[in-house]
User: What shape does this take?
Amino acid sequence: MLDLLLVTQQYFFSVEVLIWVVGLCLVLGFLVLFFYQRKVGQELQQELFQLGKVKKHNVEYELVLKAMKLCTWHIDAVERTITYDNDFRERQDCFVPQPGGSIDQVADAMVEADRLYIRKALDDFCDGLTEDYHEISRVKIPHTNDFYWTESYATVASRNPDGTPKFIVGTSMRIDERKSMEEALIMARNKAEESDRLKSAFIANMSHEIRTPLNAIIGFTSVLPDVQGEDERRDLINLIQENNQKLLRIIDDVMNISKIESGKEQLVMSSFDLNDVLNSIVESFEPKVNPGVIIMKAYAKESQNVTTDLNRLVEVLNHLMLNAVKFTDEGSIILGYDDVKDNHIQIWVKDTGKGIAPENHERIFQRFFKVDEYVPGAGLGLSICRTMANSMGGDVGVESALGRGAKFWLDIPI
Assistant: This one.
């Protein structure tokens, strides 16, 4: 009986110990599980935080692309294929290659003058021969003869074991506005340089043009009292008067430019018969033409009423006639006009002089420009003609070729 009691006590003790061991193991297991779940929770929170940062980064990245109006692309340098990832360029006519298309498509999209160096630049960069890619080129617009300017940058994203590029990323953007501004600045600079050159020439011309008639006036006036013969005195007086007119013409030109630029000279409109005005101009120039040159008239009508600024009209036509007289040594000078068209009338002066090369047709209307530096004049007349014609709502121009004479025309509303 005692033995049975001892066995029973030992049994219950073993069970109690087992229960304690199992309980301790469960507690330890719960503790391990608790700390593990806590660690997993912290890692999950960290991943969620990093995911939020990535999403925020992507939003900011996309915002930058939109603000810069960029497109992004990548190149598989081994396969030589290109794929555009994002495109935030505004225009819809921009070139976009097929996904996974050959980089040759990029070069083929360029205008012919840029095609070869763009292909070489891409090949050299994919082969690792160059460290940077930055090119500006012109891209053809499909189904048109136009093109647009693009600027591209690229860098190596990953490399092969031998160090050659494996994966390339890049961006492109349209720079049409920037190129237009650059061209405008270049033109402005060239125009300023040309203006400076012409002003220097103008000062030299004015010095010469003013000094020449002044010397004649002063010289002939000083010897006039000593001349006894009437014929000789008359010739000297005529020469003095002729040089007076030359000097007055130069001063008038300078004054006209000053008035036009200051805006002080306003249009004075009046109605008159154009034929009467042209007849008076022809009569005034008939004594001034070179021997062997005749002045003729060619009017579309026997009478033509015109309403404009008479003084400016006469000033322009006098300049055109004076040019014709200067450059016509033989043949004829014709002053005329055509029928009215669209409420405009074209008056013209046609001569058989030396003519003007096509490349100078516009330049002769610039201030201080002279085709022939040896012909008297300050280079202001035709510039004044255009300014006055524009102020009357019209324009002037020329049709000419070397050795075939010239036809200067004035087109104004009536």
Remarks:
- Residues 366 and 383 are 5 Å apart (CA to CA).
- The domain at 69-174 is CATH 3.30.450.20 (Beta-Lactamase).
